[in-house]
Amino acid sequence: MAKKAKKRAPTKKTASRRPRRAPKMLSDLFLETLKDIYFAENKIIKTLPKMAKAAHSKDLAAAFNKHLRETQGQVKRLEQIFRMLDKPARGKPCEAINGITDEGAEIMKDFKNAPALDAGLLAAAQAVEHYEISRYGTLRTWAEELGMPEAARLLQDTLDEEEATDHTLSELATSVINLEAEAEYREAA
Fold it and tell me: What is the Cα–Cα distance from 137 to 156, expressed in whole angstroms?
């Protein structure tokens, strides 16, 4: 029976023979975050039709459907940026968006046919918008710093849409949805 060789702690000589990993750069972080938001947008494309169908308010359903069309365009913009980088358009799982969309699914289940359903759907949608606004603002800034003006312009276009959607949802919340949820509650009481 052969003896197992003991592993030795690396010495300066053996450690220097190992290939060194290149340090992670801002361009690497940009690409990883791009993959993250690409995954998120594709997840949102699957989620928005469910939210539109669940909504009682026609205005809210229309806002979800409008944003679905915008999101499909946003995915195309992201794919353009991947092409600029000469990288495949591929997402990586984004636990943040999975958590936010899971909360939205829970609201749809727990508040089905309840007066507050639309208010809950709207709040979940705004959580998604705020996540996207944060990501797109960061990506746009990094694109500028990396000398990618066309990518920065595309990201700014998407950021503008996300901010407009957030504004629309806020207007719906304060002018209609929250008031209706409260009125239905008072009528039931």
Answer: 7
The number of helix segments (H) and strand segments (E) in the chain equals: 7, 0
- CA dist 100 and 123 (Å) reads 10
**Average model confidence (pLDDT) for the chain?**
90
Return the structure tokens found at 124. Answer: 């979940």
* pTM confidence score: 0.84
Return the half-sphere exposure (C-beta side, CA atoms, 13 A cut-off) of residue 149. Answer: 0
Longest dimension (CA), the chain: 85
Query: How do residues 171-181 score in pLDDT, each as one tens digit?
Result: 998 888 887 77
Is residue 163 within 8 Å of residue 143, measured between CB atoms?
no
* Secondary structure (3-state) at 5: coil
Residue type for position 46: K
In angstroms, how far is CA 170 from the centroid of its own chain?
A: 19
Q: Report the phi/psi class of residue 120: left, alpha or beta, with left for phi > 0 and alpha for psi in -120 to 50.
A: alpha
What are the structure tokens assigned to 157, written together? Answer: 């276009």
The two tokens of residue 148 are: 């990618």
Give 84's pLDDT tier (boundaries 50, 70, 90).
Answer: very high
Q: Which residues contact 114 (CB under 8 A, 6 or more apart)?
A: none
Single-letter residue type at 41: E
Distance of CA 58 to the CA centre of its chain: 25
Taking alpha carbons only, the member of 2, 4, 78 closest to residue 40 is 78
